[in-house]
Design brief:
mainly alpha, de novo design (two linked rop proteins), 6 helices
Length: 180
């Protein structure tokens, strides 16, 4: 009789440990996504200042400026990892066009506010990339735990599912051609 109780207790303890591990991994994924969100918010906050600086120096570049504003609004309203990733990639591309404008406008290139905003955005982009990499690492850990035996049984019992990786868009997977 004591043997049966001991076996049941060990099995129950195992289920509790696996469940707690799955919950911890799921919470890591949520925290990693929140870190990405924090960095994206920082970028969103910097963009209006950048736009004001650029618009003063390059008044007739309305198309480029409007593209950045539209991309920012789209990224802020995107829901889910896939939609958010696509919108963020479009915003990154639009910001690259703004920085390319600096080459055409010497007064913009020499503007201290523009240079500082450019440094801040570059730093933010680096932090976003690091946060995405960390997010993918913890998502992989959760997905492995949800899919591997025997923890997949516990995950299925309690409705714990995997998460979506943050992936590059198709256009970003191709190396750019450089011509001299």
């Amino acid at each position: 009789m004591w043997t049966v109780i001991a076996v049941v207790a060990v099995i129950l303890l195992y289920f509790v440990m696996v469940y707690n591990g799955l919950v911890a991994r799921r919470n890591q994924v949520r925290e990693a996504w929140a870190t990405i969100d924090t960095q994206l918010k920082r970028r969103y906050d910097l963009i209006p200042n950048l736009m004001e600086t650029v618009s003063g120096a390059a008044k007739h570049e309305k198309e480029t400026l409007n593209a950045v504003i539209a991309a920012r609004n789209s990224a802020m309203s995107a829901k889910g990892a896939d939609a958010r990733g696509a919108a963020e990639n479009a915003l990154s591309g639009a910001l690259k066009n703004i920085f390319a404008l600096a080459e055409s406008y010497p007064n913009l290139k020499a503007n201290e506010n523009f240079l500082e905003l450019q440094r801040e955005l570059t730093d933010t982009e680096t932090k976003i990339q690091a946060a995405r990499q960390f997010y993918n690492t913890v998502v992989m850990g959760l997905n492995n735990a949800v899919e591997q035996f025997p923890s997949n049984i516990v995950a299925r019992m309690f409705g714990i599912t995997g998460a979506q990786l943050f992936e590059a868009e198709k256009g970003e997977r191709v190396a750019p051609r450089v011509k001299f």
